[in-house]
Amino acid sequence: GENVEQHPSTLSVQEGDSAVIKCTYSDSASNYFPWYKQELGKRPQLIIDIRSNVGEKKDQRIAVTLNKTAKHFSLHITETQPEDSAVYFCAASRNRINNAGNMLTFGGGTRLMVKP
Amino acid sequence: DGGITQSPKYLFRKEGQNVTLSCEQNLNHDAMYWYRQDPGQGLRLIYYSQIVNDFQKGDIAEGYSVSREKKESFPLTVTSAQKNPTAFYLCASSTIGGVYNEQFFGPGTRLTVL
C-alpha cells in the first residue's frame, strides 16, 4: 500500500520567515495530494491540495509543489504569522475504490511554531 | 463548525469494556471514515463506508467495529480486543463519484482507558 513520509516533525521559524514542509510517497498511482492544518485541540481542515496533472498551486501565502518523478511534494508558507502555528499533515490518495472516493494515507505531521 | 459532529468530546473507559463513539453528518455525504490519531503520528484509517449497510476495513481495524444503518451516522465501537485504545478518534465524511473528494472532519473524541 501507500506510504507517506513527512519532514521535519517540528519546525520553528521567526514571524515573517518562510516555512517549507516536505513529503514523499511510495505509490506512483497516487494522484491527489491534500494538505491539512490542525490547530491545537481542533479538527484537521484542508488548506490546499494539488492534483497529479499540476506541478504547482498557489493560494495567497501558501503554495504546494509536486514532483511526480521523484514522488515528493512540498508545502511552502511565506510571510509566516503566529496564527500559522499548528500541526500540518500531508496526505496522498491511494487507489480509488470502485470510483467511489479517495482513500487517504497521511504523513506523520509537522508541528510548526511561528515565533513573534 | 456544523456539518459533522462527534460525541462525546472526552470518554473514559475501564479496561475490558466496550465503548461506542458517535459520528453524525448532515452534509448528505455518502462516504464516512474513522481515523485514529496518536501523539506525533499521522491519521491512520480504521474503517470506511461508502454506502449504507456496507463498510470496509482500513489499515488498523483490529479491535474495532462499525455499523452504517443510516447515511448520516457511522458509529465506531472500540472493543476490549483493542490492545491500546487510548487515542484521539476522528470521523470524516466526503462525497463520492467525483475525481477528487475532500474529506471533512469532525471535532474528534479523546478516549482514555483507565
What does this structure look like?
The complex is a heterodimer of chains A (116) and B (114). The N and C termini of chain A lie far apart (41 Å). Chain A has no helices and 11 strands. In chain A, β6 and β7 form a beta hairpin. Chain A is 0% helix and 54% strand. Chain A is globular. Chain B starts with a strand and ends with a strand. The A-B interface holds A 1, 4, 6, 9, 32, 34, 36, 42-46, 49, 51, 89, 93, 97-109 and B 1, 30-31, 35, 40-45, 48, 50-51, 56, 58-59, 90, 94-97, 99-103, 105-108.
Question: Brief description of this entry?
Answer:
The complex is a heterodimer of chains A (116) and B (114). With 116 residues, chain A is mainly β.
**What's the mean pLDDT score of chain A?**
91
What spatial form of chain A do the alpha-carbon principal axes imply? globular
* Strand element count of chain A: 11
Strand content of chain B: over 45%
N-to-C SSE series of chain B?
A: EEEEEEEEEEE
The interface involving the most residues is between: A-B, 29 and 30 residues
The proportion of residues forming helix of chain B, as a percent range, comes to under 10%
- The structural class of chain A is mainly beta
Radius of gyration based on Cα positions of chain B? 13 Å
Q: Categorize the overall geometry of chain B.
A: globular
Instruction: Catalogue the unreliable spans of chain A.
Output: none
Spatial gap, N to C terminus of chain A? 41 Å
What oligomerization state is this entry in?
A: heterodimer
Question: Tally of extended strands of chain B?
Answer: 11
Q: End-to-end distance of chain B, in Å?
A: 30 Å
The major sheet of chain B is characterized as: 7 strands, mixed
Helix tally of chain B equals 0
